[in-house]
Amino acid sequence: MKPFLFIANWKSKKTLVAVREWLEIFTQKNESKDQIIIAPSFPHLDFVKNFSAANMLSFSLAAQDISSFPEGAFTGEVNGVQIKEFAEYVIIGHSERRNLLKETDDLLAKKVDQALRVGLIPIFCVQNENVSIPAGVRIVSYEPDAAIGTGNPDDAAHANIVAEKIKAKYPALTHVIYGGSVSAENVQEFSAQEHINGVLVGTKSISPEDFIGILKHA
Ligand code: PGA
Known about the structure:
The structure is a single chain. By secondary structure, the chain is of the alpha/beta class. It has eight helices and eight strands, in the order βαβαβαβααββαβαβα. It has helices spanning 16-29, 45-54, 80-84, 95-100, 105-117, 156-169, 187-191, 208-217; strands at residues 5-9, 35-39, 60-63, 89-92, 121-126, 139-142, 175-179, 198-201. It has an eight-stranded parallel β-barrel with strand order 1-2-3-4-5-6-7-8. Helix 6 (156-169) links the parallel strand 6 and strand 7 (175-179). Helix 1 (16-29) runs parallel beside helix 2. It binds 2-phosphoglycolic acid (PGA). The site of 2-phosphoglycolic acid (PGA) has 13 residues, from strand 8.
């Protein structure tokens, strides 16, 4: 099988107790050796990292956001240097942040700069093939708005065409992944596509059983 990333985006959904339960169940039940990236909320990065080390789990960690500012007097911001202590990746440009928090292309480009400055790998989300992708990005997640959290995924063949177009426009990309209502039932349709190199999973990453189902059926 081609290299394929599985990203669990827990969004703003879990308490620390729920995070611990997820990790315990996942540790007992997961048998796959797939490349997995887990994106918890900021306050849980430290716990997940320590749990992972103590149990010799092989997944990587992503933050769900990064400050557009460096270290300094920016109350409430979490900067790249702080994130790098715990995570290798950072999700930037998710449509929930673009739509609900009004994050603009300019702001997102600054966030990418901050990530790259400290050696974090951006996972840059785009909603269609026309969204501009800042220089230095290597991993893009194609996530059409209508598919996120709705139970209505994009047609896999269409997602493949979009991924191909994005790669043609940005040849330096190593991965174009797909996000939006991925489940155990439909993941195989996406993993079978030539230009899709992973899935970013929201709703179906919240329960460890659902996420393991996705790993098993890809
Ligand atoms: P979803 O979320 O799996 O709930 O559609 C996907 C995403 O956050 O990109």
